[in-house]
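Bug report (template v2)

What were you trying to do?
Predict the complex of my protein with adenosine-5'-triphosphate.

What happened?
Run completed; filing so the output is reviewed.

Input:
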Amino acid sequence: MENQKEWLEEKQHLEDSLNIIVHKIKELEHKEKGFKENAVALKKSFWNDVRVNLDTAEDVDETFFAIKQQAELLSDSELAQERAIRNVKVYERLQQSPYFARIDFVQDGQQDPLKIYIGVATLLDEQDENIVIFDWRAPISSMYYDYTPGDASYETLGEEIHGEMLLKRQFIIKNGQLQSMFNTGLTIGDDLLLDILAQNANEHIRSIVATIQAEQNKIIRHVNSRYLIVEGVAGSGKTAVALQRVAYLLYRYRDEMTADQILLITPNQLFNQYVHSVLPDLGEDNMQQLTFIEYAEKRLGKQFQLEYPYEQLEELLTEKDDTQYQTKLSIISFKASLAYKHLIDQYVSYLSDKGLLFKNIVFRGERIITAQEITEYFYSFPSTMSIPDRLQLVKEWLLQQLTKLEKAERTKEWVEEATELLDKEDYSKSYSELLYEGRYTENSFDDFDQERYKLARQIVKKHFKPLRNSVNKLKFVHMLGIYRQLFDLNSSINKDLQHLMPDNWEDICQQTLPNLAKRFIAYEDAAPFLYLQDKIEGQQTNRMIRHVLIDEAQDYSPFQLTVLQQLFPKARMTILGDGHQTIHPHTFNNPSLLDTQLYGEQAEKMILTKSYRSTKQIIQLTAKILNDGSEVEAFNRTGPEPSITIVPNEVELMDQIIQDINHLSIKFETIAVICKTAAECSAVYKQLNNRVDIQLINHNSKQFKKGILLLPAYMAKGIEFDAVIIYNASAANYSRESERYYFYTACTRAMHELHIYSINKLTYFL
Ligand SMILES: Nc1ncnc2c1ncn2[C@@H]1O[C@H](COP(=O)(O)OP(=O)(O)OP(=O)(O)O)[C@@H](O)[C@H]1O
C-alpha cells in the first residue's frame, strides 16, 4: 500500500516536472522566434541604420563604429538565438528522461529534508526561482554517488555541508514514462547496474551517469592536482570515467573552458568513433580527439614517410627469428627511453658549438647562399644564445640576403624572356596595379619602362616567394641531416657522447641509417625527432588546450609524454591506463606513464580495481593469464564458463568458429573474432567471407557496425564485444613472454562469452 502511494506520488511528480519542461520549451521557442525575427530585421535594415560617410578621417571613424555597433547587435541576437535552440535541445532530452535519481537530505541544524531529483541538466521552476532538477555535476548531487542512506556530506564553495541522507531512490524513465523505481541501499543500485551491464554491446560506449560508482566519482570530480593518474584493471570504466570527467570539467569551469579546449588522446580512429557520442548524449559539445601519430604526421608527414604504430607492431608480432626480434625490441625501447632523451639533450648542447647542418639555398639551379655561409653566420653568434634564438637571427639575415639577390635578379636575361612570354591577363594586372600605385599616367613617356620594370619585379618576386616561405619556416635547417649525424659512427659526436650511448649503439645506427636515407621515420623515431626539432627550431606549443586526457596511457613512451607536455604547456592532464594491457614495444623496459614519479610532486594517483565489463567467469579466466598474482575484482555478474577448444587443423577450426558464430548470433549483436595480426585476419577473412557475413576491421577502419567482426587484437584495444572468439591461441602463435599482455588485452574484450581456439598445443599463457 505504502509502495503504491509512493509510486503514485512519483508519477505525479514526474508529470509536474514534464509540465514545467513543456512550459520551458514553449517559452524558449517563443524567445527564439523573437531573436530570429530581430536578427532578420537587423540584417534588412543594416545599411539603413548606418550612415556611410567617408569624406574625412573622422567620418570614416564614425562610419566604422556605426558598422561595428550594428554588427555587434546582429551577432548578439544570433548568439541568443543559438543559445535558445541549444537549450530547447537540452529540455527535449529532459523530456525523455528528466531525472534518474532522488535523494532526500536533511542538513544538520535544519528540520525539513530537501528532495533532490538528479538528471543530466538543471531544471528551474516556471518562475526560475527553485531548482526542480539538479544537474548530476552539481556539488549536492555528489552525495548520490558517494553515500548510502545515513550520514552524508558534500563540498560546496570550499565548505563541507553535513547532514543525513534519508532516502536514495533510482528511476527508470523512458519516453517520459516512469517504468520502474527502487530504493537503494549499500551501493548504487546493484540491480540497475547489473541490468545495464547485462545488456548487449554497442557501437559506441554509453554514458554511465546514473550508475557512476563512488570510486569513479572521485576521479570524475578530482580537480586538485596538475596530473591525475588513473590505473584501472581491464573493464573498470577508465574510458567511461574519462568521458564523464570531460562533461564534469565543462560544467565546473563553464565560464572559463569550452569543449574545444579539452583534448582526448586516443589510440586510433576506430576508438575515436567509439567514444564520440557520450558527450553529445550528455548535452555537451565533444572535446577534440587526436592520435599521437596524427600529430606527428601533421608536422613531419609532408617531408617524410612515417611508420604507423600498427606497422611497427605487425612487424614485431610476425618476426619469427628470435635474435632479430630481441634486437628490434631493444632498439625500440631505447629510443623511447629518457636515457635517449638525455642523449639528445647533450647532442643539442654539442650542436650549440659546432655540427649544426644547413642546406644550400638554391635558385634556378644555382647556389645563391651556401650551407657553409649559413653555418659561419650561425656560429658567429655567441654560444650563450640559444640555438632557436640564433636561428631567428639567421632567418632575418637570409631574408635580407634574398631581398638583395632578388633585386639583382631583375635585370637578368631569363626575366626579360619571361616578360615576353607573359599573357594578356598578367599585363592588364600589372597595368591596373601601376594605375593604383599612381605610377601610370596614361600619357607619360616612361610608361613602357615602368611597366617592364613592374613586370620584371613581379616575375622575380613570384619566383622568390617559395624561397622566402621556406626560409620563414626554417627549412634551411637540415633537420634530417642533424638527426642522421647522431647515428654516424665516424662523426666526432659518437666519440664525444659515447658515454651516453648503450652497448648496442652500433646495432641502433645500422638499423636507423638506412631508414633515414629513405626519408623513412620509424615510429620509435617520431617522438625523438620532434623533440630534437623543437630544441633546435624552437618549441611548438598549443596554449589553448587546458586539459589533456590520455586514454590507454600504458602504450605511450616517456619520450612521447615529454613531447606532449611541452606541446601543451598550459594543460592539466588525466592519464588513464592499465599496465597489464601494455602492447606497444616502445614501452617495454621503460617507466610507465602510470608511474607518478614521472610527474614529480604534482601528480596524484587513483586506482580502480573492480571490473564491470565481463562476467565473473570471464574475469576469473583472464586473471589467470596475468600469472603475477594480481587480483581483478569482478562485479557480481555471472555467465557461461569460457571455452577452450583444441583443434587438429585449420579446416576444423573454421568449422567450429562458424558453428560458434551461428549459435552466438541468436542472442548477441556484436561478436568479434580476434586474431593476432592483420596478416592473420586477411587469411581468415578469405576463408570465412563466403560462409558468414563478416566485417574485416583494419587500421584504416573508422567505425564498425553491430554484427560479426574480424580484427587484430591491437584494433580491439579499448573496445568491447558481447562475445569474443580468439582465433588461434596456440603455443606456436603466442610463444613470447612479451606477448602475454597482448593476449590478455584480446581476451578481456569479452562482455558475456569468451571462446578460445587453438590449433594443437595451447599457449602457455593459459
Ligand atoms: N559505473 C558504471 N556504470 C555502468 N557501466 C559501467 C560503469 N563503469 C563501467 N561501466 C561499463 O563497463 C564497461 C567497461 O568500461 P570501459 O571501457 O570504460 O573500461 P576501461 O577501464 O576503459 O577498459 P579497458 O582498459 O579494458 O579498455 C563499459 O561497458 C562501461 O560502460
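What did the reviewer find?
Residues 30 and 84 are 9 Å apart (CA to CA). The longest helix spans residues 2-44.
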